[in-house]
């Protein structure tokens, strides 16, 4: 049996820190903050405050422009931000659907693609915790554990990508194939999502951690773990191909559904850091082509920009070092790699 | 042939499916699958579920795996009372949110607690280091606290004033470490009160019946060497 990480010490301070990180890793939104506030929330008005982030170049071919939010009076602290870094948003717009997303995250991309493909109007609230952009105090109040994706629809706050996707499909009455009303067809989508949670989620995100995120904070993940992860991915891909795809055009049936979206964005994660999962898997590659053709290359390119650039940025040392306050959470995540 | 449910009540999700079907008087044939004897690895069972896991459902020619999928299928097909999985979009989303969250959190913690504390040493004859056990129990502690703080809060049930699939899935998960001798409800009066409410809503007799097997997990006889050899890699993969 493997030894537990050495950091499971009896030191109360480190235990509390780990507990706080575990909570963040495992947790979910809370309408009120947890008893122990996690460290690392930036003071409002600092340049790392999300609401004052310099807007980045982001294309919006589908017409939904990502916007930095403006809530309340701007803090005049920006000695290093000479021009206003915030675009004002009409007050009425702040009452609509808000999606808190980090495009490096697979489930966030699935939610974003789904919303845009279905013309669901929403305000994109970009949260890039690992790039050193702290969520604002507002986001912290919405989601004290800073989980993404998070949906805010008026007073209603929801986490968990599959719950968000199902909510959006119901509320906006999207085409039936996404989440079929037929009893058995819908059961197939849920069957996939259940298996996905156990066998895909957590597994396919590992290469990004081993190749990019861990090195950013000076951690080297042992080769043994990298190989073990490859074995788990191979097994999962085999099951995906044989049990879920089989002879069908898509993962849960003959039409694209939420299942395909969730699956594809997860599989893309290791692909983005150079693991060609589709090589030697023609059935899976054909499935990928079908889903991507359906979704449209412009939409995918726009959504996947950050993840597809991350490896190059890392190689050229252009990825900002994550701030110290997120290191414990990152270390915990890394330690959970089997 | 009517509805068949392939279950082993040693498994948390099987207990949730069993209780749900019985509580809602859904007629079914119970097809026992003994996990500790490796029956889920048989070719016959692979016809029902090629993923070789329980629970599994067979309804005529339709087979279905994954407990949440099975629960939702039964919910819709047998038109159970609305509170289990509400029609209201937001109330339903709350249940979906819990069912999604619990997979990689409570489910994982409870499974590891049982295996590290009891099943590895007692059934598989494999010692577990105190460090690993402590880490597992610490993680369980955090997850249970999250359940209380983020989901239960001051409500009667996890997603509102009435019992739902979320509560059933959660309680059957928590009985795993209880079966291993972990006092998850101790020092947590809110959670303990919720436990009593769920048990009352389900029915004490049904609850007790469904949990007989897990509460005797500590008394599992050691595994047959051939079975152990087959199960070991799968168990290790399961609790990663």
From TrEMBL, chain A:
Main subcellular location: cytoplasm
Region (Disordered): 32-65
GO cellular component: cytosol
CDD domains, alphabetized: GST_C_Theta, GST_N_Theta
PROSITE patterns for the chain: GST_CTER, GST_NTER
Annotated localization: Cytoplasm, Cytosol
Residue intervals of the GST N-terminal domain: 95-176
Subunit structure: Homodimer.
Protein name: glutathione transferase
Organism this protein belongs to: Ursus maritimus (Polar bear)
Organism taxonomic ancestry: Eukaryota, Metazoa, Chordata, Craniata, Vertebrata
UniProtKB/TrEMBL annotation, chain B:
Lineage: Eukaryota, Metazoa, Chordata, Craniata, Vertebrata
Pfam families (UniProt xref): GST_C (PF00043), GST_N (PF02798)
Chain ranges of the GST N-terminal domain: 1-82
Molecular functions (GO terms): glutathione transferase activity
Gene Ontology CC: one annotated term: cytosol
PANTHER family: GLUTATHIONE S-TRANSFERASE THETA-1, PTHR43917
Protein name as catalogued: glutathione transferase
Enzyme class: transferase
Cited PROSITE patterns: GST_CTER (PS50405), GST_NTER (PS50404)
Subunit structure: Homodimer.
The organism's place on the tree of life at top rank: Eukaryota
One Gene Ontology term from the biological process aspect of the record: glutathione metabolic process
Family: Belongs to the GST superfamily. Theta family.
Catalytic reaction annotation: RX + glutathione = an S-substituted glutathione + a halide anion + H(+)
InterPro entries: Glutathione-S-Trfase_C-like, Glutathione-S-Trfase_C_sf, Glutathione_S-Trfase, Glutathione_S-Trfase_N, GST_C, GST_C_Theta, GST_N_Theta, GST_Theta
Localization in the cell: Cytoplasm
Gene source species: Ursus maritimus (Polar bear)
